[in-house]
Design a protein that fits this description.
The chain has 2 helices and 4 strands, in the order ββααββ. With 85 residues, the chain is an alpha+beta fold. A 4-stranded antiparallel β-sheet has the order 1-2-4-3. β1 and β2 form a beta hairpin. The protein starts with a strand and ends with a strand.
Length: 85
């Protein structure tokens, strides 16, 4: 899907720069659906969109080694990504 470069973080969310990979084109509409539903306050649609994203079995793989993370929330808009696990 793409590469995340950690820029900052707090107790809950990690802020990253996002560089899309080859699979991004197929996933971008799913992230847009989630973002748009949350922005318009449609919680049911937002949660459904997030469930659809979760069903994609996305994995965060550290480039420094270590265990992959399979349970997380992620938001991507343009070159900006945020995730929490």
């Amino acid at each position: 899907m793409g590469t995340l470069a950690l820029e900052s973080g707090d107790m809950f969310w990690s802020d990253c720069r996002f560089e899309p990979g080859p699979a991004w084109e197929g996933l971008a509409p799913l992230f847009a659906a989630s973002r748009d539903a949350w922005r318009r306050g449609d919680e049911d649609a937002a949660l459904a969109a997030d469930e659809t994203l979760y069903a994609q079995d996305l994995v965060l793989v550290p480039d420094s080694g270590g265990a992959p993370t399979t349970e997380f929330l992620i938001r991507i808009e343009g070159e900006v990504a945020r995730f929490r696990h």
